[in-house]
Specification:
330 residues, mainly alpha, Rhopdopsin 7-helix transmembrane proteins, three-stranded antiparallel beta sheet, 3 strands, 79% helix, 2% strand, GPCR_Rhodpsn_7TM
């Protein structure tokens, strides 16, 4: 058993080592962008918010699991289990829906000029803080079950036969019916954006293909393409990659969750739950690497940091500008 716990700890440690600096690098890059340009494009604001929620996923779940696996910190008492699972479920759901929001917005951005979708894109960009607030309220509400049902594995005398074993904690459902209803809500919360972002990605691919055919015609006629349009298409391709990673990893996660719901007793092993958390957290760790490798704005700002700019002062000024921006929106 100790060897299994150590392997488990190493897996979550690897996600922590990759995910924490990766997401922090993306966040720092966008804060520097705010400092230099005093504002963010809507797509950049969504990516920044996505990186913040992904960082929260890695810190709250992967880092805590690593510390507990190697007995470096005891964070999984009853209160710790409720807090960690609630924050993880909320930030995980936010990561999913923000990925969908990013794919939908990028789809609107590359829609043909003059189409009615241009006005929808502008409306979304103007009301982005409201959209963020709505998503936070929605997912904190639907994750409340984690506070109600989570208990420490040390308190196993109160565990029912409908509980879900997550190694250091149990999600202790009072009955199979409540477990199935809660599980169905969680699956729906994932499957709906998964289906929608798959659809938007397919639309993006169709639009990119049509645009490439159009550019071939223009080049044949001796016309040059638009640099702005090219940057939008690069961003759209990155979104398609992120969505593909998401659908694969969260598809495995949800498949394992459905299997867990079909088991009519509390599992003695946390293997299934561990695999679910690992695959879901893997997206939070890998997505910043995709963003860093493909986003020119992030690349250029990180190069500036590497050249020795005063990073702490730059970040402080950026935070002040962001706060002032949100105050003006009120």
């Amino acid at each position: 058993m100790p060897s299994n716990v150590n392997v488990r700890g190493m897996l979550f440690l690897s996600l922590t080592v990759v995910g924490v600096p990766g997401n922090m690098a993306v966040i720092v890059a966008f804060l520097l962008l705010v400092l230099q340009e005093s504002w963010l494009l809507a797509a950049d604001a969504i990516v920044l918010h996505l990186s913040c929620t992904n960082l929260l996923v890695v810190l709250v779940r992967c880092l805590m699991e690593t510390l507990a696996s190697f007995h470096l910190a005891n964070v999984f008492g009853d209160v710790g289990c409720k807090g960690v699972i609630f924050i993880y479920r909320t930030s995980r759901a936010l990561s999913i829906w923000l990925t969908f929001l990013l794919s939908a917005y990028q789809c609107l951005s590359i829609a043909p000029p003059g189409s009615k979708w241009g006005s929808v894109r502008i409306l979304v960009a103007q009301n982005l803080p409201i959209v963020f607030l709505f998503l936070w309220v929605l997912h904190t509400s639907t994750s409340a079950g984690a506070i109600l049902f989570s208990v420490s594995s040390k308190n196993d005398t109160a565990v029912t036969t409908s509980a879900v074993n997550v190694e250091f904690c149990y999600v202790n459902f009072p009955s199979d019916i409540i477990k199935e209803v809660y599980g169905a809500i969680q699956v729906s919360r994932d499957v709906v954006p998964m289906a929608l972002m798959t659809l938007t990605s397919l639309i993006i691919l169709v639009l990119l293909y049509k645009h490439s055919q159009h550019l071939k015609g223009l080049r044949g006629a001796g016309h040059a393409g638009s640099g702005t349009c090219g940057s939008k298409q690069r961003a759209a391709k990155v979104v398609v990659v992120l969505v593909t990673i998401y659908v694969v990893l969260y598809g495995v996660d949800n498949g394992l969750w459905v299997y867990t719901l079909t088991v009519r007793h509390t599992m003695s092993s946390s293997l299934i739950s561990d695999l679910r958390v690992f695959f879901a957290s893997l997206y939070a760790a890998l997505s910043p690497l995709v963003i860093i490798a493909s986003n020119r704005k992030v690349n250029s700002r990180l190069r500036c940091v590497h050249k020795g700019q005063n990073l702490s002062q730059s970040i402080l000024k950026s935070l002040i500008k962001i706060l002032n921006y949100y105050v003006r929106l009120q």
